[in-house]
Write a structure and sequence with these properties.
The complex is a heterodimer of chains A (113) and B (110).
Chain A: E1 3-5, E2 10-14, E3 19-21, E4 24-26, E5 32-39, E6 46-52, E7 60-61, E8 64-69, E9 74-79, E10 88-96, E11 100-103, E12 107-112
Parallel strand pairs in A: 2-12
Antiparallel strand pairs in A: 1-4, 3-9, 5-6, 5-10, 7-8, 8-9, 10-11, 10-12
Chain B: E1 4-7, E2 10-13, E3 19-25, E4 31-37, E5 43-51, E6 54-57, E7 64-66, E8 76-78, E9 87-94, E10 99-101, E11 105-109
Parallel strand pairs in B: 2-11
Antiparallel strand pairs in B: 1-3, 3-8, 4-5, 4-9, 5-6, 7-8, 9-10, 9-11
Classes of the chains: A mainly beta (113), B mainly beta (110).
Chain lengths: 113, 110
């Protein structure tokens, strides 16, 4: 079975600082996708970043980047220059072939002014 | 604009009543999903459908039912057999590379 673990239920960071959210997953698949989704107070799920397992290069999207360690099954999200609008729940997700998704329990991030 | 719509945003029902949550997408996606979200538990899969007229149970299907008669629509019925129906429900559709979410429906049963 696939599982996704987020070991940090809550985190906080000062505005303009950098924060890293952790995620580990367990799978026997070799080809899959990993995602970080953001859920702000509006509760709309927003895709932050996607990583394809067959790509060794870590994905980046502006202030967001990942550290993908395939052998360790680790997929952490780094947010640089944190902004107040980054305050949200962040979910790590795993997708294997045939569109089956698995989500972690989330990390609640608060950016402090 | 392409996207997923869920209606209504807030729904209130009396205990013992069945209620149907709407989910419509115009993204031309084959796969659609229903998730339940409770505090501290992330997203739990209720049902998913890979194609019209076919669907599979997820991890917490008991007390729920779905249909997939059209590609665009994947309604979820919360039956009176669901013991704790009060929750936030998210509908999603996906390509092979990404999942897209609707805005959600908050269901309160009293």
């Amino acid at each position: 079975a696939q599982t996704v673990t987020q070991s940090q239920p809550e985190m906080s960071v000062q505005e303009a600082e950098t924060v890293t959210l952790s995620c580990t997953y367990d799978t026997s698949e070799n080809n899959y996708y990993l995602f970080w989704y953001k859920q702000p107070p509006s509760r709309q799920m927003i895709l932050v970043i996607r990583q394809e397992a067959y790509k060794q290069q870590n994905a980046t999207e502006n202030r967001f980047s990942v550290n993908f360690q395939k052998a360790a099954k680790s997929f952490s999200l780094k947010i640089s220059d944190s902004q107040l609008g980054d305050t949200a729940m962040y979910f790590c997700a795993f997708m294997k072939i045939r569109n089956q998704f698995y989500f972690g329990t989330g990390t609640s991030l608060t950016v402090i002014p | 604009d392409g996207g997923i719509t869920q209606s209504p945003k807030y729904l209130f029902r009396k205990e013992g009543q069945n209620v149907t949550l709407s989910c419509e997408q115009n993204l031309n996606h084959d796969a659609m999903y229903w998730y339940r979200q409770d505090p501290g538990q992330g997203l739990r899969l209720i049902y998913y459908s890979q194609i019209v007229n076919d669907f599979q149970k997820g991890d917490i299907a008991e007390g729920y039912s779905v249909s997939r008669e059209k590609k665009e629509s994947f309604p979820l019925t919360v039956t009176s057999a669901q013991k704790n129906p009060t929750a936030f429900y998210l509908c999603a559709s996906s390509t092979p590379k990404e999942q897209y979410f609707g805005p959600g429906t908050r269901l309160t049963v009293t």
